[in-house]
Amino acid sequence: MVPNVLTIAGTDPSGGAGVQADLKAFSAHGAYGMSVITALVAQTTTGVAEVHEVPPEFITAQLVTLLDDVRVDSVKIGMLANAEVIRAVVEVLDRYAPPHVVLDPVMVAKSGDRLLAPEAVGALRDELLPRVDLITPNLPEAADLLGEPELADVDGMPAQAERLAGLGAKQVLLKGGHLSGESSVDLLYGDGIAEFLTSERVVTTNDHGTGCTLSAAIAALRPQRPDWLTAVRESKDYLTEALRASERLDVGHGHGPVHHFHHWW
Ligand SMILES: Nc1ncnc2c1ncn2[C@@H]1O[C@H](COP(=O)(O)OP(=O)(O)O)[C@@H](O)[C@H]1O
Ligand SMILES: Cc1ncc(COP(=O)(O)OP(=O)(O)O)c(N)n1
Questions:
Q1: Ligand 2 lined by 79 (C-beta under 6 Å)
Q2: What ipTM was estimated for this complex?
Q3: What's the pTM?
Q4: C-alpha distances out from residue 141 to 115, 173, 183, 237, Å
Q5: What is the mean pLDDT of residues 193-221?
């Protein structure tokens, strides 16, 4: 069965992040991709120029129209922009209860530009996070959600993942890409497991959209795999290969891995 997978996210005209990257990752993992737009973002791999936030009532209309008609097998949630949009998504999750909801808690782009209003972090943590099956924070996002300093090494990841799980998400994938060293280490925590997933750290500047691509691949694979660990492991391998492929193509700096991976693939 080809799973129907929905992304609820903002746009990225460069194709390396956001909805555009999500749909590529869905297709690359045998899923039928659908999308609801939360924000129109004027950006490239080097920065965000402008954001046009979609009114929350229109996000609700996009979601209800789709969910009243189509079976959804998993959901990836990315950029939400503000607290009103978060609450609109929460209401729809409560009404339709789709399976396998993955939340990539997008707050700040790699360029440093904010993609979530600072005053909305509380709504993300207290109202949305308890309703999702897997949250995939990077280390800055984990620190923001917990109101604590950013981790500087892998040793602190198990305890921080436990604190994140205490906020209510069933599973936590704490991503260590912002650390340094020869490996890029993540931790999957929840449902009785605490599993480190380690890959080679690819030396590259083509890392725009890595978090989007990973969480989208996980959402596409989860309905096709027996458990989260299998889906996460395969998704991480896919992302690592995409990062390696982006170097082989040598088409300049700053593009996203999936952008090159699909051209190469
Ligand atoms: N240079 C890299 N080489 C290999 N994997 C990486 C690299 N940078 C990030 N990753 C992996 O990409 C995923 C995204 O990680 P991270 O960069 O921490 O999150 P985000 O992209 O949301 O900021 C994680 O699985 C991480 O381990
Ligand atoms: C619309 C939109 N969503 C998410 C992002 C984040 O992409 P990036 O800044 O490259 O960060 P990671 O995906 O690596 O966490 C974005 N720029 N735009």
A1: yes
A2: 0.97
A3: 0.94
A4: 12, 12, 20, 22
A5: 93
